[in-house]
Amino acid sequence: MEAFTAARLLQQMIDAAITANATDIHLTSVNSGLRVAFRVAGCVRPFVHLTERGDEVLRRIKALARLDVTNAHTPQEGAFRWDMEGASVRLRVSTVPVYSGESIVIRVLRQAQRPLTIFELGLSAAQMGRLVTLLSEPQGLVLVAGRTGSGKTTTLYAIMQYLAARGMQVFSLEDPVEMPIAGCRQIEVRERSGMTYEVAVKSLLRQDPDVLMIGEIRDELTARIAVRAALTGRLVLATTHAAGVSGSIDRLLELGAKQALLSAVLRAVMVQRVHTQQAGVSGRAYRLELFVGDDEMAGWRTDGRHVDSTREEELVAKVANGELGTQSTAI
């Protein structure tokens, strides 16, 4: 009876999140209660407060994600697939112990019919020209920065597809793979089974790649991998959680990247931001800003200073004036 009740509650919860176009489901348990909220259009909105059976729902989620259902004291990560009326989504689960309970966040990864092309990202003609020129370089590091849900992976997938169509050998390290890209060889990192970033990249560099995509620079290891791979003559694409160019550089330096090496390999930072749509318009607007070349990063390259914050504000102002492109496709 417990499994049936928990399964029914979870089904209604996840189905409601998918119907509402939520990107994340937030569950916080305190004692036996459970608060559930959805992130929709960038805002977290309360959904339901269960006063009982909260623990049963959490155990059900952990079982589906193949996590230890008895462990509520250490962080865990997993994933599972969910089918709803012919639509299939991947749900990525993260659990963290909190005071008097546990927090679980489920990321809703929708399977699009096909990846966008770089020509569908909403870039202006001038910005598209700069991007195509950038992608013609045989080596270097290109970062896509932004918060969770801003469309970073969609942009990287569009770039991967563009490069693969031009005969480049494109490999990726992802956790998880969110969508298959034609012509690309995608490797899913599975820490628990021994397929770590470090193990995978050593094997990939022997596969003669032209392009290496790293899903996210999240720690010292992935930062080191990204910089070193770029130094070996590959074009490296990666995402990072940062608000802008300065934050992206700060992030890599904090993770142990050597300033001299980073200066040698960093080619561009693409910043994506989420903007609330106009009233009555569903979904979110994604603004894609491209900072590339000596003009934008000259100060940092020449004397070690970060990108001047005033200069960055001026570039952002260009977006508002329509001088840089915007991406308005829901991710």
Secondary-structure element pattern, one letter each: HEEEHEEEHEHEEHEHEHHEEHH
Oligomer: single chain
CATH class of the largest domain: Alpha Beta
Main sheet characteristics: 7 strands, mixed
**SS strand fraction:** 25-35%
Q: How many beta-strand runs?
A: 13
Structural class: alpha/beta
CATH architecture of the largest domain: 3-Layer(aba) Sandwich
Termini gap: 38 Å
- What is the helix content? 25-40%
InterPro entries: AAA+_ATPase, P-loop_NTPase, T2SS/T4SS_dom
Keywords: ATP-binding, Nucleotide-binding
Protein name: Flp pilus assembly complex ATPase component TadA
GO molecular function: ATP binding; ATP hydrolysis activity
SSE topology sketch:
Elements: H1 2-19, E1 24-30, E2 33-40, E3 43-50, H2 54-64, E4 76-84, E5 87-98, E6 101-110, H3 125-135, E7 140-145, H4 152-165, E8 170-174, E9 184-188, H5 197-204, E10 211-214, H6 220-231, E11 235-240, H7 245-254, H8 259-265, E12 266-276, E13 284-292, H9 294-303, H10 309-320
Parallel strand pairs: 7-11, 7-12, 8-9, 8-10, 10-11
Antiparallel strand pairs: 1-2, 1-6, 2-3, 4-5, 5-6, 12-13
